[in-house]
Design goal:
The complex is a heterodimer of chains A (284) and B (287). Chain A has 284 residues and is of the alpha+beta class. Chain A has two domains: 63 residues, no CATH class; 190 residues, D-amino Acid Aminotransferase, Chain A, domain 1. In chain A, 32% of the residues lie in helices and 20% in strands. In chain A, the strands form three sheets. In chain A, strands 7-6-5-9-10 form a five-stranded antiparallel beta sheet. In chain A, a hairpin with a 5-residue loop joins strand 3 and strand 4. The longest helix of chain A is centred in the C-terminal third of the chain and has 27 residues. Chain B is an alpha+beta fold and 287 residues long. Chain B folds into two domains: 66 residues, no CATH class; 189 residues, Inositol polyphosphate kinase (D-amino Acid Aminotransferase, Chain A, domain 1, 2-Layer Sandwich), CATH 3.30.470.160. In chain B, helix 8 packs antiparallel against helix 9. Chain B is globular, with a radius of gyration of 19 Å. The termini of chain B are far apart. Classes of the chains: A alpha+beta (284), B alpha+beta (287). Chains A and B meet through helix 4 and helix 9 of A and helix 4 and helix 9 of B. Chain B: Inositol phosphate kinase with a broad substrate specificity. Chain B: It is an enzyme of class 2 (transferase). Chain B: InterPro entries: IPK, IPK_sf.
Chain lengths: 284, 287
């Protein structure tokens, strides 16, 4: 089994200072180290439950990574790892964005220390104000022919306008590191719009969240992916995926109103960009 | 002639010489402008809302009509004080059952004082606000067997957990809310919550607006539910009505939807929907 570090991680843990990070193989699988304390356990428990939950409709299942159980991996000192579908294996030049959903990342079952840590982070970011925050993104620059990633510290301090700008840059073709030029949002309708675009997928997810009471997806992210190789021909292969289930708890008959509120807010941001880019192109 | 409203279930009450709202016999509700910024903020909201052309007509009906600020003899004897003159949403009802539900998984909002934040978050965590996205603030329900009202104490209501909130919502549409040892009969669930003019239909209309409106953030606002119990007239309609109230903490939306209110509203809708569905199943099974 030939394992290496994934190329396009935009958020979450990476292999650093001797601590294990995620790995990918050449068969389309993603190996995530089981996090210490209860988080790894909770994530496994979620995947086990979800993969055998017959009440999850098939069209919703596509928004979740396929689960392949757990495995001890030699190159990580026999550490146990969760084996998942590598969401990027079928992409050759993916642009990826990680958006943490919900107006709070803490939840009643968490420890007081964790709750306070989350409250601080939520207040400093757009989580409280907008119901979501951008954890990270990487976008392909079609002029520079390379990937660009914003500075992590910069991202942590952005406000609502910064979020809008990031969502525009994410679907732009012009030079991204040049802050003086306005992002052209050239790919907005291919990526965000259309019958298979991001907006359509998010709306499908939203309908499920209005009724499902199985899980509360605390601190989960939505990953947005699209292909740059084919985008110039209008073929974005845009995909929405939910990831990071270390804090998921039972819904206990209550909908995940925290995730739903944030998702609805995010949908509005995406829709606004799509509409303003549509308006722009009709004016040109 | 002004008097203390009969059907207040939450908020300040003008009792025992305290300052509180008053009603007249013309269907107007007078709410004293609170000393701090809150009264000013509420008046500012009503001024803005009543003249905001971007609010659709069908949504306007969910808000009390605004009749400006008027000088009125205060309930605590302190003389003429400015009061918000509003539509009295329960006038015209003979024996109304009323419930006040505070919507949102948080009652605080960005940029409040640390003191206010701590007060709010403590209450939010102790009640169902954090867990359900809403909490019951108060209610009074007419009991058809006892011919009187069930009006649980405020402390009891604030101690509700998920099951308590669900039971209160069931009792709200029951004919026997005072009977403790008996299961609430949900006798009026389909007439009050269900139907083409019922509470659920109205909540869904509100929800559609909240999915895209970025005009206001309704921090700490309540939904009031009212319906008629008077049976002196045969087949009297229940006239179930939803109204949004309490706008002391409303802020500009600034281009962002009120995701806090929206999430809580969806959770509340799910609870109501479940009660309607289980009461329909009850009838089918001949209970």
């Amino acid at each position: 089994m030939h394992l290496k570090a994934p190329e396009h991680q935009v958020a979450g843990h990476i292999a650093k200072d001797g601590k294990p990070g995620p790995l990918v193989d050449d068969k389309g699988r993603f190996f995530k180290p089981l996090q210490g304390d209860s988080r790894g356990e909770i994530e496994v428990k979620f995947y086990e439950s979800f993969s055998s939950n017959t009440e999850v409709p098939a069209h919703i299942r596509r928004y979740f990574p396929v689960y392949h159980g757990t495995q001890a991996v030699e190159s990580s000192d026999g550490a146990a790892m969760i084996v998942l579908e590598n969401l990027l294996s079928k992409y050759s030049k993916p642009s990826v964005m990680d958006v943490k959903m919900g107006s709070r990342t803490w939840y009643p079952e968490a420890s007081e220390e964790y709750i306070q840590k989350c409250l601080r982070k939520d207040a400093r970011s757009t989580t409280v104000s907008s119901g979501f925050r951008i954890s990270g993104f990487e976008v392909y620059d079609h002029k520079e022919l390379s990937f660009w990633k914003p500075d992590r510290k910069l991202l942590n301090g952005i406000k609502v306008d910064g979020v809008r700008l990031a969502l525009r840059k994410f679907v732009s073709s012009n030079t991204l590191s040049d802050t003086s030029s306005k992002p052209d949002s050239a790919f907005a309708s291919s990526v965000y719009g259309g019958s298979n675009g991001i907006l359509t997928q998010l709306l499908e997810l939203k309908t499920w969240f209005e009724n499902q009471t199985f899980y509360h997806f605390n601190s989960c992210s939505i990953l947005i992916i699209y292909e740059n190789e084919s985008i110039q021909d209008g073929d974005a292969r845009a995909q929405v995926k939910l990831v990071d289930f270390a804090h998921v708890h039972d819904g206990n008959g209550v909908i995940d109103h925290n995730f739903l509120g944030g998702l609805c807010s995010f949908i509005n941001f995406v829709r606004d960009i799509l509409q303003s880019s549509d308006d722009q192109s009709t004016q040109d | 002639m002004l008097k203390v409203p009969e059907h207040q279930v939450a908020g300040h009450i003008a009792k025992d010489g305290k300052l509180g709202p008053l009603v007249d016999d013309q269907g107007i509700f007078y709410k004293p402008l609170q000393g701090d910024a809150r009264g000013e903020n509420e008046a500012k909201f009503y001024e803005s809302f009543s003249s905001n052309k971007n609010v659709p007509d069908n949504i306007r009906g969910y808000f009390p009509a605004y009749h400006g600020v008027q000088l009125v003899e205060a309930s605590d004897g302190s003389g003429q004080l400015p009061h918000l003159a509003l539509e009295d949403v329960v006038s015209g009802y003979v024996k109304p059952s009323v419930m006040d539900v505070k919507i949102g998984s948080r009652t605080w909002y960005p940029d409040v004082s640390e003191e206010y934040f701590n007060k709010c978050i403590k209450k939010d965590r102790e009640t169902t606000t954090v867990s359900l996205g809403f909490r019951v603030s108060g209610l009074k329900v007419f009991d058809h067997e006892e011919s009187g009202f069930w009006r649980p104490d405020k402390r009891v209501v604030l101690a509700y957990k998920v099951d308590g909130a669900r039971t209160a919502l069931r009792k709200f549409v029951s004919s026997n809310p005072l009977a403790d040892s008996v299961v609430p009969d949900c006798a009026f669930a389909s007439e009050v919550y269900g139907g083409s003019n019922g509470i659920l239909t109205q909540l869904l209309e509100l929800k559609a607006w909240f999915e895209t409106q970025t005009l206001y953030h309704f921090n700490s606002c309540s939904i009031l539910m009212v319906y008629e119990n008077d049976e002196s007239v045969d087949d009297a309609p229940r006239r179930a009505r939803v109204k949004l109230v309490d706008f002391a903490h409303v802020l500009d939306g600034n281009g962002v939807i009120d995701h806090n209110f929206f999430g809580g509203l969806c959770s509340f809708i799910k609870f109501i929907k479940d009660i309607v569905e289980s009461s329909e199943n009850c009838c089918e099974n001949g209970h």
